[in-house]
Design a protein that fits this description.
CATH superfamily: Aldolase class I
Structural class: alpha/beta
Oligomer: single chain
CATH architecture: Alpha-Beta Barrel
Radius of gyration: 16 Å
CATH topology: TIM Barrel
Strand content: 15-25%
Number of helices: 10
Distance between the termini: 16 Å
Shape: globular
Strand order of the largest sheet: 1-2-3-4-5-6-7-8
CATH class: Alpha Beta
């Protein structure tokens, strides 16, 4: 599997999210993220709309689940998501239940490290639980991801490792060499020309 670049639709308007997603797909994007703000604003229906409009895309529902792992995983997957997220700081039981439901439905669970302090030891524990992906995440309020040494260390583990956090054309090449997937949001969604910005991201990552 080559590098996956997800367009993070961290917007509150479904109409605006779909408009930008169409432009990004035209530029060559194949992966979409229904961001947490979009899901909170427009509901799980936002995932259904993305699935309906982009039937060939891989869709990630950023649920940031902390409890009721199986229930929220099933909600996301039945709406059309291929991947859903659980927080790394959630109870092990919640993560296990989400992973169980994902395996049952032949989908994937991504564990989000936002707010996690001891990342390496916790991820070793989560890999043993049976999760499918780890996303090293610096939130919008925290700034830009630059922990490349951590990313290098985690690549030795038997799990897909990705990055989110202010990635743009100046940083994506460093990430692309190390990660299995990358989330890119503001560099495209806040651009005056989202289609051109999407093309620039793909080119900088070596995918165009």
């Amino acid at each position: 599997m080559g590098l996956e670049i997800f367009l993070s639709l961290d917007l509150i308007s479904l109409g605006e999210a779909l408009r930008i997603a169409r432009l990004a797909v035209r530029a060559g994007f194949k992966e979409m993220e229904a961001g947490t703000p979009l899901i909170k604003s427009e509901g799980i229906a936002s995932v259904r709309y993305l699935r309906r409009e982009f039937p060939e895309s891989k869709i990630f529902a950023d649920m940031k689940t902390m409890d009721t792992g199986a229930l929220e995983a099933e909600l996301a997957f039945k709406a059309g998501a291929d991947i859903m997220s659980v927080m790394a700081v959630a109870p092990n039981e919640t993560i296990k239940e989400a992973a169980r439901k994902a395996d049952e439905m032949k989908k994937e669970v991504l564990v989000d490290t936002l707010g996690l302090r001891d990342v390496t030891s916790r991820i070793r524990e989560l890999v043993d639980i049976g999760i499918h992906r780890i996303c090293l995440h610096r939130g919008i309020d925290e700034g830009v991801f630059r922990e490349y040494d951590l990313l290098d260390r985690l690549k030795e583990m038997d799990v897909k490792v990705g990055v989110a956090g202010g990635i743009d054309t100046s940083t994506i090449s460093d990430v692309a060499r190390r990660a299995d997937f990358v989330m890119v949001g503001r560099a495209i969604t806040k651009s005056d020309n989202p289609e051109r910005a999407a093309e620039s991201i793909l080119r900088a990552a070596g995918l165009l």
